[in-house]
Specification:
- The protein is an all-alpha fold and 167 residues long.
- The protein contains 6 helices and no strands.
- It starts with a helix and ends with a helix.
């Protein structure tokens, strides 16, 4: 028999079983196979990272097959099992903070320099800087709130459309 034929038959069989009985039926078998293969790259000097990845992958599949809340969706179980999903945000908070601080500093600096260039007194310059700081903070907070609200509404709409398509 040609090399790989047995693997193709096994894959087709697993796909058929998933279609007939669902992924939960096949997951324990796949978890056992992953667990058995977790050390296949161990000891190979050029595959050190692959060995660690295989161990991690086997642990993820084991968690999916045997662990977790039965009421939890499969996607939620994957997210819980894979460490890179934990505590990860999209980075929007950091981006917003950096851009907001930069924008606030530059605009307030320009405002103060413009008032100082006009030859006004020290108290007026200080008051202008304070007023610019407060106005900039309010403006950035409102702008970010609107941006996050719109992004949330867009995501909810897209999720609802996908849910309708899946149904």
């Amino acid at each position: 028999r040609p090399k790989g034929t047995g693997q193709a038959v096994k894959t087709r069989l697993m796909k058929t079983l998933v279609r007939l009985f669902g992924a939960g039926f096949v997951l324990p078998t796949l978890a056992a196979a992953e667990y058995a293969d977790r050390n296949k790259y161990h000891g190979q000097p050029d595959a050190g990272r692959m060995s660690a990845d295989e161990h991690h992958h086997a642990a993820v599949v084991q968690t999916l097959a045997h662990g977790g809340d039965p009421d939890m969706s499969q996607g939620a179980r994957i997210a819980a099992a894979e460490s890179w999903h934990k505590g990860v945000s999209s980075g929007n908070d950091l981006r917003a903070a950096v851009l907001g601080a930069n924008d606030g500093l530059v605009s307030n600096f320009c405002l103060i320099m413009g008032v100082a260039g006009a030859g006004t007194g020290n108290k007026a310059i200080l008051l202008t800087g304070l007023a610019g700081l407060i106005a900039g903070a309010c403006s950035m907070a409102l702008g970010e709130w609107l941006s996050v609200t719109n992004a949330r509404e867009l995501a909810s709409t897209q999720i609802a459309k996908e849910a309708d398509e899946l149904e």
